[in-house]
Structure to design on (194 residues):
């Protein structure tokens, strides 16, 4: 149900009303006053409505708090526990999206430059060392790993190597799980159009 309320600060001359779900209203039976839960009144009379004491006369015990008062934690299943550990290992393998990823990509550019300069100078040992560091850094970039694994997956499928294709698919999915633009699950609410 929806209730129309006079907003705080509004007077009768410029009456501003708002539609407020009645589930967000608290009523104190002793004073018959109605207030928004977020508008905590400073007066002592209406304070008992927000006190959180379930035994106070007529006071509401917060929004729906009686529903959650005596809940016990739900035991996590073994499958869920294993999945969480696998997700933690996967996230540890890849750089997190943001500053860490940008720093990693700067490091990749620097290492690429080091490989080229070492090759130009003829220092094969230095070039090999920089190449190893470059490969390790590239393995931490989830977007790069995702793209490379997809390319390897399609190539393995064309060649009919099913076991290899499955391994590349698993790696691509692991990298994909660390990319925020592929993980937009949840409730999306918005206003579309006019």
């Amino acid at each position: 149900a929806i209730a129309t309320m006079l907003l705080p600060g509004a007077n009768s001359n410029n009456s501003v009303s708002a539609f407020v779900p009645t589930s967000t209203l608290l009523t104190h039976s002793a004073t018959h006053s109605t207030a928004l839960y977020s508008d905590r009144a400073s007066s002592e009379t209406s304070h008992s409505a927000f006190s959180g004491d379930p035994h106070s006369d007529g006071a509401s015990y917060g929004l729906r708090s009686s529903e959650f008062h005596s809940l016990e934690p739900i035991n996590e299943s073994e499958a869920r526990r294993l999945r969480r550990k696998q997700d933690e290992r996967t996230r540890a393998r890849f750089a997190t999206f943001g500053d860490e990823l940008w720093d990693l990509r700067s490091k990749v550019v620097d290492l690429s430059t080091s490989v080229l300069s070492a090759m130009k100078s003829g220092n094969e040992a230095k070039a090999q060392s920089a190449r190893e560091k470059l490969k390790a850094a590239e393995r931490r970039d989830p977007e790069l790993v995702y793209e490379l694994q997809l390319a390897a997956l399609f190539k393995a499928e064309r060649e009919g190597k099913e076991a290899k294709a499955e391994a590349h698919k698993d790696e691509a999915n692991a990298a994909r799980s660390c990319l925020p633009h592929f993980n937009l699950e949840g409730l999306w609410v918005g206003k579309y159009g006019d």
